Amino acid sequence: MVSAARALDREIARLAFPAFLALVAEPLFLLGDAVVVGHLGTPELAGLGIAGTVVTTVVGLCIFLAYGTTAGVARQIGAGHRDAALAQGLDGLWLAVLIGVPATLLTALAADPLVAVFGASPDVVEPATTYLRVAALGLLPLLLILAGTGVLRGLQDTRTPLVVAVAGNVANIVLNVVLVYGAGPVPGLGIAGSALGSVLAQTAMALALVLTVVRAARREGATLRPHLPGVRAAARAGVPLIVRTLTLRASLLVTTYAVVLTATADPDLDSAAVPVATHQLAMTLWGFLAFVLDAIAIAAQAITGRYLGAGDVAGTREVTRRMVGWGVVSGIATGLLLAAASPWLGALFTPDAGVRDALVPVLLVAALAQPVAGVVFVLDGVLIGAGDGRYLAWAGVIVLAGYAPVVLLTSGLGAGLPWLWVVFSVVFMGGRLVTLVRRARGDAWLVAGA
Domain-by-domain residue ranges, the chain? Predict the structure, then answer.
């Protein structure tokens, strides 16, 4: 029994550690942008927060391109059908193209009304709109990155996405510095340069991942032409995950909207941009830690899909138990680190003393919620790997319906930013914990077969 547990731990670590490093690199795109843009000024940083929220929402809605592809490819691998696994992965890549082209056009053309939805002050609207128009060009590469990463994870390969993520992140930082401030013959483009640098780095990453999948498909004899029934099947399978993701993104958007309402309604604030910028930094750091914890969830998707594809229900139960334990320990560790670093993190991103001071209590609230987040992300990954998207969709709707009125009421009562984060942690994350634990204890999600 002890040796079997250790074998599971080694398997989890083999997939989770490279995924951990890759996922740490992913949010560094926004963190790198925040460091560079933050020194342009507080309005620019707040504008980045709003534009970044729109971009991550659009991409987040399409996360099924990674999650659904990982689960489907892993099931085929577990059943011993590598050629079918790669064919399914190519269907995901073509679906990314079909979604990415119109998403790019719509986001770029609708930049003004999308930013206006947040009701930000005029000094924030201009940099937010500028960043969003340019960043929209990176949507298709980002969706191809999702799909390509999903294929490789389903093939039990988390190392290649790691290499691509690290190289892309280094390129993003260099391009941001050069294009924002200028260097030699390259003129400084301000916040537009930050968006352009990210687009160029994302395009290079997408090309690297797509070429890797294409080479693997050719080795297995899989056709590269679009297989419309397969693309349609991938789209249908992704609908519940879209709903699930939509509820999560809607919850984050509602939180940002509540922060903006609180900031603009408080007459004691010298600048409404301070709480918005503070929330942007806190949410960016939250996302950074979420990706760290999500490394175990990535392993959960790949392993759960493979175990169920091979018909091993008992093994699925055991590996789920082990991964939940990993989630708890990881959540405690990240929470302690965040709390210890909270007094100094603000200085990395902005010279504004008001933002730095306001950030500390928010980060302490976020630190307390980390153990809950660790369990939530792991169980979310397990159920995605099992293909239990329908339940996740309904659970997301229920949690959003309970959370949105509470956080908006809290904002309407004039509560400050730390209290809004308390509501986020207790109502939103707590609601997700309850719904996921309830499902994991049952048997309905344990469906075996390719």
Answer: 2-440
